[in-house]
TrEMBL record:
Organism classification: Bacteria, Pseudomonadati, Thermodesulfobacteriota, Desulfuromonadia, Geobacterales
Signal peptide positions (record): none
Organism for this UniProt entry: Geomonas propionica
Residues of the Sigma-54 factor interaction domain: 143-371
CDD domains, alphabetized: AAA
SUPFAM superfamilies: CheY-like, Homeodomain-like, P-loop containing nucleoside triphosphate hydrolases
Family annotation (PROSITE patterns): RESPONSE_REGULATORY, SIGMA54_INTERACT_2, SIGMA54_INTERACT_3, SIGMA54_INTERACT_4
Residues in Response regulatory domain copies: 4-118
Modified residues (4-aspartylphosphate): D53
Protein name: Sigma-54-dependent Fis family transcriptional regulator
Alphabetically ordered keywords of this record: ATP-binding, DNA-binding, Nucleotide-binding, Phosphoprotein, Transcription, Transcription regulation
Length: 457
């Protein structure tokens, strides 16, 4: 879209010269012979930019600038005058002028100033739009569902958002834990500060401390310059620590100190830095069980678990499936909102499917149907595993409790060992592949091997 510019000058020759110049650059140009004329035009037309003389009969250019900024603060204004003074320039800039140039001016100078002013205005407008989109996306409307379970989640987020309390979000993978964390941030007083997310399970043990706290030049091989960590990047905002259960014990102690003292040191640094950061942590594992096993510090758990929000699985809130399907269909297609988007048979299948991957799996399923060109989600566009309802049973066939009772923990330990061995056998002894086969991180897999004395080659 071509930018519209208003040229204001009491000299006809100057107005026409600027109009011809700017028209040649591709802009839409209107002319006004006075400040009063300009204000009447601005009242009925939106302008991206105004170029105005300072000295004009009647209302002057400085007063015009003041009124433009009062009525249309996002309009860029360039002031031009034959009698440049430092006082006028300072006053114009204080009132919000983009720049101030004197006559005679160079044609290229005007072209560059106009281009830069409009680009700056576009970037400001884009930033405002994106910020509004982000707040809309991660307000409660970013979490889809009206089930009782989701209403409880919304209620907790609303209560905790305005506080500074640490929050622990629990739930299975794919339930929307990061969405909940973002909703907390964007409904809090910190919403204009950064929201920084990190998956603790995706960072190697040797790098996670540097990633969180930063490092100084020469702290270790490859540290060629000072580097701020995520705590510094999230200053004044929220740091989301996803998969917090994967953090090594040694680093847990340092993380605890940050939460207690609100300060930290970069790796290799001697100066303590303040940490004005709100912590929201998440885990799909049972941290209380990890505390009992000794793989997670009890004191850190209680520091993080000031308020706990549990994200329900999709199976628990199946009544939200229609709304989620519609949301994801709109996201991935050009659907305008008229007509059905899913057949009754397909919806019935989705209701009965257990969705082990939760909302994330449903989103991928809808995206798959859109990519395959389905105007309506029908049975034939659903993945075979969903159509055939080959859901994984919650327990292997043949399990029963004998009359004399059983040692549940011993039984589960035995089953876990057998599955670890089976995974290693299927993957030729390659531990990383075996961990992936069982849907866990390499660190968790090694921990389980050590737990049963199976960590030796």
């Amino acid at each position: 879209m071509r930018a519209r510019i208003l040229v204001v000058d009491d000299e006809l020759s100057m107005r026409e010269f600027l109009a011809i110049l700017l028209d040649g650059e591709g802009y839409l140009v209107d002319q006004a012979e006075s400040a009063e004329d300009a204000l009447s035009r601005i009242g009925g037309q939106s302008y991206e930019m105004v170029i105005s003389d300072v000295s004009m009969p009647g209302l002057g250019g400085i007063e015009l600038l003041s009124r433009i900024k009062s009525q249309c603060p996002d309009t860029a204004v360039l002031m031009i005058t034959a009698f440049t003074t430092a006082e006028q320039a300072v006053e114009a800039m204080k009132l919000g002028a983009y720049d101030y140039i004197g006559k005679p001016f160079k044609v290229e100078e005007v072209k560059v100033l106009v281009r830069k002013a409009l680009e700056k205005r576009r970037l400001v407008q884009e930033n405002i739009r994106l910020k509004a989109e982000v707040q809309e996306r991660f307000s409660f409307s970013g979490l889809i569902g009206k089930s009782k379970q989701m209403r409880e989640v919304y209620d907790l987020i609303a209560k905790v958002a305005d506080s500074t309390a640490n929050v622990l979000i629990t739930g299975e993978s794919g339930t929307g834990k990061e969405l909940a964390a973002r909703a907390i941030h964007y409904n809090s007083p910190r919403k204009d500060a950064p929201f920084v997310a990190v998956n603790c399970g995706a960072i190697p043990e040797t790098l996670i401390e540097s990633e969180l706290f930063g490092h100084t030049k020469g702290a270790f091989t490859g540290a060629i310059a000072d580097r701020p960590g995520l705590f510094e990047q999230a200053e004044g905002g929220t740091l989301f620590l996803d998969e917090i259960g994967e953090v090594p014990l040694l680093l847990q102690a340092k993380l605890l100190r940050v939460l207690q003292e609100r300060e930290f040191r970069r790796v290799g640094g001697a100066v303590s830095l303040k940490a004005d950061v709100r912590i929201v942590a998440a885990s799909n594992r049972n941290l209380e069980e990890q505390v009992r096993e000794g793989s997670f510090r009890e004191d850190l758990f209680y520091r993080l678990n000031v308020v706990q929000i549990r994200m329900p699985s999709l199976k628990e809130r199946s009544e939200d499936i229609p709304a989620l399907v519609e949301h994801f269909y709109k996201k991935y297609s050009l659907w305008s909102g008229s007509g059905d988007i899913i057949t009754p048979d397909a919806m019935r299948v989705l209701y009965n499917y257990p969705f082990p991957g939760n909302v994330r799996e449903l989103e991928n399923l809808v995206e798959r149907c859109v990519v395959l060109g389905s105007r309506v989600i029908a049975l034939d566009c659903l993945p075979p595993a969903v159509r055939e309802q080959r859901a994984v049973s919650s327990a292997p066939d043949g399990i029963g409790i004998p009359e004399e009772g059983m040692d549940l923990q011993a039984y589960l330990d035995n089953l876990e060992q057998k599955l670890l061995v089976q995974a290693l056998d299927q993957c030729g002894g390659v531990k990383k592949r075996a961990a992936a086969l069982l849907g866990m991180t390499f660190r968790s897999f090694r921990y389980r091997l050590a737990k049963f004395g199976m960590d030796e080659d």
